[in-house]
Write a structure and sequence with these properties.
The complex is a heterotrimer of chains A (about 375), B (about 325) and C (about 290).
Chain A lengths: L1 H15 L9 E7 L6 H20 L8 E7 L4 H14 L4 E4 L3 H14 L3 E3 L15 E3 L4 H8 L3 H5 L3 E7 L2 H16 L3 E8 L7 H9 L4 E6 L1 H13 L6 E5 L4 H7 L7 E4 L8 H14 L5 H20 L4 H9 L2 E4 L2 E5 L5 E12 L2 E9 L6
Parallel strand pairs in A: 1-2, 1-3, 3-4, 4-5, 6-7, 6-8, 8-9, 9-10
Antiparallel strand pairs in A: 10-13, 11-12, 12-13, 13-14
Chain B lengths: L1 H19 L3 H26 L7 H19 L3 H23 L4 H21 L1 H4 L5 E2 L5 E4 L3 E4 L3 H24 L1 H11 L1 H6 L4 H27 L1 E2 L6 H15 L4 H16 L4 H18 L5 H8 L13
Antiparallel strand pairs in B: 1-4, 2-3
Chain C lengths: L2 H34 L6 H18 L4 H22 L9 H23 L15 E3 L2 E3 L1 H23 L1 H11 L1 H6 L4 H23 L9 H16 L4 H21 L5 H15 L9
Antiparallel strand pairs in C: 1-2
The chains are: A alpha/beta (about 375), B mainly alpha (about 325), C mainly alpha (about 290).
């Protein structure tokens, strides 16, 4: 019985754990969804982090020691993510945490980080509230939805040649945040909001919502969805005869989306933190290595992983010790230049200064058509 | 006499856990198990004793968690107030729901409980002004214990909170035991075994099912409150069907209709999934298979009969048995 | 047509498309319930497997789409027959809690097997239909949507005919009404059970295979489909085919219209409230058992 052997194996290794030698490696914990609805992207993140950690180790590691990644499955489920984080901090004694992908799971893991005083960094969770809680152990290395909106909102009416904007987003904090924060920026660029619709995480068909949006006669539709829903959404939008250009936060520039959505992906704009067509030496090297080792083009989740691990390692290096408190302090003083430009953290540990991109799918390739820089978050 | 010794021995062992188990991670699992013990004892009342398969129990658990969380966030009620409020609130909700659905029997009842749970999930997700939807309610803190004259005890440490949960589990166990041993409990079993006979004797199946349903829900609500404050965070994910599944597994495989069975089931099926972390899908496939096989061939469950077999009769804690 | 009329018509068409699917799936569920007295919590998994097997056949094995659909259904039927023989045959006289727990266990089992085989990523079945939408008086649809509606409607008619006209159908209805009497007149109950379970599974699988072309399937889909099917069956009356058909269409239309003219977040609540209302005022459902 496979599961019985596994139990025995685990029991034995758990028993042996106390006898492990004092840490020669610097342990970094990773809580990501490796199963569940966003497992595909979660696994990409994990594989990227592993690849990059190996690279760093090949160059000598950090503080003269090798990095050891300990990965646990949070499944984008808050309870499971908490269990995973507890295990990483208490048993594996990690000095830093990367995770947990979905904003609700990250919110839950934040509490664990605070309780055990271990720094946590996310490159993916964009819910605005996360940095509003004054949790000193949490760092966000990605622009929030309102920040993206402020950066690109004024540009969209001109870039999309549209006046009437309709929103159709996921009914969670991300989607709601978008619909709350984007309109002002879009209006400042000369746009007008004509519809606000939502769909649920479990929805498989969106015909009603699309029909409602259609009734408002939009020139462009602003979306927030992850890969799985993005594919069905864009297909069904076209199937119901809506020809307006689509622009969205989420999966809209990733290879998996483009491949699965087929012709429906043509002409779709994406508001992204990272896209593999960025022209820079750092990115060229990254893309080349990614294609060679992981056999596909890096998506924004890979980009997020790149930022997260490098910022964490950079902080460890500057801290001079594998001590969670020192790492936390060092992270506050981050001035990191990497994949997407310069990143610093403001007083709430929110990243700013990085470049963000407007991508457009042309012939199956998400080309960068506009860039903007994230300015410090408004208080 | 030997029964007393056995009881004391078990109690002593349970109290000694935080002293023996130094590892915070395992302590965490013990705490979570304890919380689930409270919840599944409640489920056992309706499923095991009265014999109605309610799939709304996880929803009651989540509702308790949300009630306590909302009271904390909006009115700054500590867990000491939040827990009884959650228990009462959820118990009341069960009273209302039961009034509507407990006259139904059969498959319709089961499905209605599912519908109720899904509806509650929808409310938690969409009533954003109240519940913050998917963003959930974070920052729920464990309370301090201020005893007059003794100063204030900080129970936020895991080892201290363990005792709170242990106390809750023991109280829940004793309450349930008192209930099932009383004449009410006997009537539960009669309703389960032979409803027409019960009705002919003037025993209203509806009334007794209601008692079990409300009591069970109150326990679930209390457990939910403990969980919310311990984890520090609630979100609509608490309404997922996976919680129903795991609670059912705890009760059924533990041994429905006994109290010790589901309690042990709660501990076992909190630890087992964590130990089998790696094997995620195989783990669930195994559990599902065991559930099917056990339901088909082992209606008394696995844990309780095993324990009953191993522990000599003299030493056993007495228990109301299921047929 | 005026704009608002067009939009209304669009909502109605959307509702019919989804309603036909609901009706087909619910027919299968009500058949299993009526004959075997089992609330099949794994019903949605038959839908999901129908979709996944069809996906597997078309995109990974290169089978022709129109051939893949019946093959996918046949595969699920084979599975259903095996399950019936191995498990449900023993549950003929079992109490309701037992059968329900077994189907819940089965549902978890099948979902995780699907996760193991295909992973969590939703997949839609590649279809040979052109993707350009067709429009009639401003109401849009695609060849695929029309195909879905045609197939589901045809299968509903077939199901209805089988129940009403064929010998097997009559035997099934007899078993519905009176098991002992049917056994006495020589109807082989075991055979009827197998047929009912297989047929019920077939209808669900067909829905999954056909709809999988535009609604992506993932292992978690099963649970949602099961819930919808149960709602329809409660509305229509457990064991009533007409109820399943009418209930399914009504739910589809109600959801489309409701979502069309109310905040869409509460779309699913329509079914829930309908169930509560039915339970309060007409617990046996809109139609009696047939």
């Amino acid at each position: 019985m496979k599961s019985l052997r596994l139990v025995v194996a685990v029991a034995v290794s758990l028993a042996a754990a106390p006898f492990a030698l004092a840490q020669e490696t610097v342990r970094i914990g990773v809580v990501q969804p490796m199963t569940g609805p966003v497992a595909y992207d979660g696994n990409i993140y994990v594989n990227t982090v592993k690849m990059l950690a190996d690279d760093i180790n090949a160059k000598g590691g950090v503080l003269g020691r090798k990095i050891e990644l300990v990965v646990e499955d949070g499944a984008c489920n808050p309870a499971q993510s908490v269990n995973a984080a507890e295990k990483l901090v208490v048993r594996d004694k990690v000095v830093g945490l990367l995770g947990a992908f979905c904003s609700t799971s990250t919110a839950a893991v934040m509490e664990v980080a605070k309780k055990h005083k271990v720094p946590l960094i996310t490159g993916i969770s964009t819910a605005a509230q996360l940095t509003e809680q004054g949790n000193p152990y949490f760092f966000r290395a990605v622009a929030t939805t309102p920040m993206l909106g402020n950066a690109f909102g004024p540009v969209l009416p001109k870039a999309l040649k549209a006046k009437r904007f309709a929103f159709l987003t996921l009914n969670d904090d991300w989607g709601r945040s978008m619909q709350a924060s984007y309109p002002k920026a879009i209006e400042s660029g000369g746009g007008q909001i004509v519809a606000n619709e939502f769909f649920q995480q479990s929805d498989l068909q969106f015909l009603s919502q699309i029909t409602k949006v259609k009734a408002a006669n939009p020139d462009a539709i602003v979306l927030a969805a992850n890969t799985q829903q993005a594919v069905a959404l864009s297909k069904q939008i076209r199937e119901l005869g809506v020809t307006a250009p689509l622009v969205g936060e989420g999966a809209w520039s990733s290879d998996s989306y483009i491949k699965l959505a087929g012709p429906a992906a043509e002409g779709v704009y994406g508001l992204v933190e990272y896209v593999y067509t960025i022209k820079s030496p750092v990115n060229d090297a990254f893309v080349k290595e990614f294609q060679a080792k992981l056999k596909e083009n890096p998506s924004k989740f890979a980009g997020a992983a790149h930022n997260a691990i490098h910022i964490m390692v950079d902080a460890i290096r500057r801290a001079g010790a594998a001590d969670p408190e020192k790492i936390r302090e060092a992270m506050e003083r981050t001035d990191y230049n990497g994949l997407v430009g310069n990143i610093k953290f403001d007083a709430k540990h929110q990243a700013y200064g990085q470049t963000v991109y407007l991508s457009l799918v042309k012939n199956g390739v998400p080309e960068v058509v506009e860039t903007a820089q994230i300015s410090k978050a408004q208080p | 006499m030997s029964r007393r010794i056995a009881t004391l021995a078990v109690l002593a062992l349970l109290c000694a856990v935080p002293l023996v188990v130094r590892d915070d991670y395992y302590l965490h699992l013990f705490i979570v198990s304890g919380i689930f013990v409270v919840a599944v004892l409640g489920l056992d009342l309706i499923v095991g004793y009265v014999g109605q398969l309610s799939l709304a129990h996880a929803a009651f658990f989540a509702m308790g968690a949300y009630t306590s969380a909302l009271l904390f966030v909006r009115l700054q009620w500590s867990m000491w107030l939040g827990l009884p409020a959650a228990a009462l609130g959820v118990g009341f909700a069960a009273f209302v729901l039961g009034g509507v659905i407990l006259r139904t029997r059969g498959h319709r009842f089961i499905i209605i409980t599912v519908v109720f749970a899904e509806l509650m999930k929808l409310v938690a997700t969409n009533w954003v002004d109240m519940t913050r939807g998917f963003m959930g309610l974070p920052g729920l803190a464990l309370p301090k214990l201020s005893l007059p004259g003794l100063g204030s005890l900080d129970i936020t440490a895991k080892s201290h909170f363990y005792y709170v949960v242990l106390l809750a589990a023991i109280v829940a166990f004793l309450l349930c035991r008192a209930l099932v041993r009383s004449s009410i409990g006997r009537k539960f079993v009669l309703v389960r075994e032979n409803e027409p006979l019960a009705e002919s004797l003037g025993i209203s199946a509806f009334r007794y099912a209601m008692i079990a349903f409300v009591a069970g829900a109150a326990l679930a609500g209390a457990a939910g409150s403990l969980y919310a404050h311990y984890v520090g965070f609630v979100s609509p994910d608490l309404f997922n069907f996976s919680y129903v599944t795991i609670m059912l597994i705890m009760v059924i495989l533990g041994g429905k209709g006994t109290l010790v069975g589901p309690a042990l089931g709660a501990v076992l099926f909190t630890f087992l999934p964590e130990l089998l972390r790696e094997a995620s899908h195989w783990r669930m496939i195994t559990f599902a298979t065991i559930l099917i096989v056990a339901t088909l061939f082992m209606p008394k469950g696995i844990v309780y009969p095993l324990v009953a077999y191993l522990v000599p009769r003299r030493w056993r804690l007495s228990d109301a048995h299921a047929a | 047509m005026s704009a608002s009329l067009t939009i209304l018509a669009q909502h109605l068409l959307n509702g019919v498309l989804i309603g036909c699917a609901y009706a087909l799936i619910a027919m299968g569920l009500t058949m299993i319930f009526g004959v075997m007295n089992i609330a099949n919590f794994a019903h949605g998994e038959f839908y999901m497997l129908g979709g996944f097997v069809a996906f597997y056949l078309v995109s990974l094995m290169g089978l022709n789409y129109f051939a893949a659909l019946p093959v996918a259904v046949a595969a699920v039927v084979a599975l259903a027959i095996i399950l019936q023989h191995a498990i449900f045959r023993r549950l003929r006289e079992a109490p309701m809690m037992t059968t329900t727990l077994v189907t819940i266990g089965l549902s978890i089992f099948l979902e995780h097997v699907a996760l193991l085989l295909w992973g969590p990523q939703p997949q839609s079945i590649p279809t040979p239909f052109p993707t350009k939408p067709l429009s009639f008086f401003g109401v849009y649809t695609t060849p695929l949507y029309l195909f879905c509606m045609a197939v589901t409607a045809a299968l509903i008619v077939v199901g209805h005919v089988v129940i009403r006209r064929t010998r097997m159908g009559k035997a099934m209805r007899a078993t519905f009404q009176n098991k002992e009497a049917s056994a006495l007149v020589g109807i082989r109950i075991d055979r009827i059970y197998a047929y009912a379970f297989a047929f019920g599974a077939a209808l669900a699988a067909a829905a999954g295979a056909v709809l999988g072309g535009f609604i992506p399937v993932e292992p978690a889909t099963g649970g949602i489909v099961t819930l919808k099917a149960f709602i329809v069956v409660i509305l229509g009356g457990m064991g009533s085919f007409v109820g399943a058909i009418v209930g399914g269409l009504m739910l589809g239309l109600a959801e489309a219209l409701g979502a069309g003219y109310m905040p869409t977040g509460w779309k699913d609540a329509i079914g829930f409230f309908a169930v509560i209302l039915v339970l309060l005022f007409r617990p046996e459902g809109l139609f009696r058992r047939v």
